[in-house]
Amino acid sequence: MLLKNKILVFIFSILSVFFFSCSGEKTTTLSFDFEYEVIFNELGTVEAWIPVPQMGPFQIIDNLFVSTTHQYRMENDSIFGNLFLHLTPFELTDPDTLTVYFRVHRQEARPHAIYTEATTRELYLQPYKKVPLNPQLYSIAEAISGTGGDKIKEIYNTIIKHMEYDKSGDGWGQGDAVYACKVGKGNCTDYHSLFNALLRVQQTPAQFNIGFSIPEGLSGTVIGYHCWTEFYHEGGGWFPVDISEADKHPDQEDYYFGKLDNRRVKFTVGRDIPLPGGTATDIVNFSVYPYVKVNGVSSRGFIPHFFYEVVN
How many CB atoms sit inside 10 A of residue 21's CB? Predict the structure, then answer.
């Protein structure tokens, strides 16, 4: 792939004839501009990967524009196909900024039947480092009553009862199913990792999706990521679920089992993601923030900022 250089612009547009869903249901589309800014401030030889959102059944991305003075490649990871802006190694002698701009058109997500190959379904049955399929999780899943979709709803209800949205102390925010099971608190990554683990041990494919929630209002700063999941129900397709939002908003528990609001943007799917063009050790737990290396070593020498503006 050709290298881009000098405040290069990478623009692509998705044709407006793309349909969000095959269901034929009419839902409101929220369109907003999103700005993903990274300030690099650790001097040395810098290499970085920035996740870039792609289109999906309920999301269109267009007007993508990259502002940087450095060379980069657009590459997909080899397992999940997530798209990354890969800044190839460059010498940073003064703090510098990269900004990715794009427009999002997002609809309410709901169950959607889409052809999914057996190999893809199998991919979402596998364990991850922080989502093991261990005997304890098997036992918990077995003890929950019900079959099929009823059992999945009961797992959802069980996690809401078990978990508390609490970001105090250590260990939260890693998407650690065992931690969530043991401690019973955490953020969205912990809720959905436990949910995915309990589904996978009973052979139900489940995806981990991550991006950002868009605050109420017309414009402003986006603070922190948000994640959710989709599970595959034979004969019914993929069902979206947002357990942490349901737990924070008890009056919407039923809504978030099968639907997602449109004030969000999805960036990546999956866990233990191998970064394209990286080394064998350049693997991330999940990806929504930049992954940066300075002088060949993983670094926190950057400051990210995220902004949005509603345009409809």
Answer: 18
Count of C-beta atoms within a 10 Å radius of residue 250: 8
Q: Would you kindly state where each structural domain of the chain is located, as residue ranges?
A: 29-108+272-310, 118-267
Residues of the chain with pLDDT under 70: 1-26
CATH 1.10.10.60, applies to 29-108+272-310: no
Cα dist from 277 to 10, 86, 295, whole Å: 19, 8, 16
Q: Where are the alpha helices (DSSP H) in the chain?
A: 118-123, 135-143, 148-162, 177-183, 188-200, 243-248
Provide the 3-class DSSP secondary structure of residue 176. coil
- What number does CATH give the domain 118-267? 3.10.620.30
| Amino acid identity, position 9 | V
In percent, the amount of the chain with pLDDT more than 70 equals 91
pTM for the full predicted model:
0.91
